[in-house]
Amino acid sequence: MPLRGFPAWGTLLVLALAACAARASEITFELPDNAKQCFYEEIAQGTKCTLEFQVVITGGHYDVDCRLEDPDGTVLYKEMKKQYDSFTFTASRNGTYKFCFSNEFSTFTHKTVYFDFQVGEDPPLFPSENRVTALTQMESACVSIHEALKSVIDYQTHFRLREAQGRSRAEDLNTRVAYWSIGEAIILLVVSIGQVFLLKSFFSDKRTTTTRVGS
């Protein structure tokens, strides 16, 4: 009997996980020095949105300027030199919302920026419309699994970002240590050669010249 129920369970689970319809933009992009990059999103009034960003992999002090504007140009969010942040708002009107990342304060360091812009909320897996009964045990299990998987995806994303940032810092530290070691080796070689010539000069015979006066 459990084996017969497995295909139905699997089909229901796949359909449930595919029901997520909220729009989300998740992008990682390069932001050169003295540059500014803007993105645009059409949002309906009353829609709840969340903007989350983080400077990863490269970027000096790992900071950027972020600015979010509504269709009228009103600033909803503005932060200067932030490494990461999250901002949630509800659209006050229909139109195109703009959010920009700026690295104009940096003269030679480019940045790698990750952002996740969530528009709207996930619809329920099992809408309550036209339902006269509570969720079945299988439906409740699907909802729980769906929520757990969303949390797993969020954790995996953040862990990947931290891993990439940690790897970049480790590689940068490794490069600096390598250059420092090469510099120490060169200095040690120069000092050793200098000591050899100095010691050689101590033990070398000095020829003196004598001059006879008269006979």
TrEMBL record:
<dbReference type="InterPro" id="IPR009038">
    <property type="entry name" value="GOLD_dom"/>
</dbReference>
<keyword id="KW-0325">Glycoprotein</keyword>
<keyword id="KW-1133">Transmembrane helix</keyword>
<protein>
    <recommendedName>
        <fullName>Transmembrane emp24 domain-containing protein 7</fullName>
    </recommendedName>
</protein>
<dbReference type="GO" id="GO:0033116">
    <property type="term" value="C:endoplasmic reticulum-Golgi intermediate compartment membrane"/>
</dbReference>
<dbReference type="InterPro" id="IPR015720">
    <property type="entry name" value="Emp24-like"/>
</dbReference>
<dbReference type="Pfam" id="PF01105">
    <property type="entry name" value="EMP24_GP25L"/>
</dbReference>
<keyword id="KW-0968">Cytoplasmic vesicle</keyword>
<keyword id="KW-0813">Transport</keyword>
<keyword id="KW-0732">Signal</keyword>
<keyword id="KW-0256">Endoplasmic reticulum</keyword>
<dbReference type="GO" id="GO:0015031">
    <property type="term" value="P:protein transport"/>
</dbReference>
<feature type="domain" description="GOLD">
    <location>
        <begin position="36"/>
        <end position="119"/>
    </location>
</feature>
<comment type="function">
    <text>Potential role in vesicular protein trafficking, mainly in the early secretory pathway. Appears to play a role in the biosynthesis of secreted cargo including processing and post-translational modifications.</text>
</comment>
<dbReference type="GO" id="GO:0005789">
    <property type="term" value="C:endoplasmic reticulum membrane"/>
</dbReference>
<keyword id="KW-0812">Transmembrane</keyword>
<comment type="similarity">
    <text>Belongs to the EMP24/GP25L family.</text>
</comment>
<feature type="signal peptide">
    <location>
        <begin position="1"/>
        <end position="24"/>
    </location>
</feature>
<keyword id="KW-0472">Membrane</keyword>
<dbReference type="InterPro" id="IPR036598">
    <property type="entry name" value="GOLD_dom_sf"/>
</dbReference>
<dbReference type="GO" id="GO:0005794">
    <property type="term" value="C:Golgi apparatus"/>
</dbReference>
<keyword id="KW-0333">Golgi apparatus</keyword>
<keyword id="KW-0653">Protein transport</keyword>
<feature type="transmembrane region" description="Helical">
    <location>
        <begin position="177"/>
        <end position="199"/>
    </location>
</feature>
<dbReference type="GO" id="GO:0012507">
    <property type="term" value="C:ER to Golgi transport vesicle membrane"/>
</dbReference>
<dbReference type="GO" id="GO:0030663">
    <property type="term" value="C:COPI-coated vesicle membrane"/>
</dbReference>
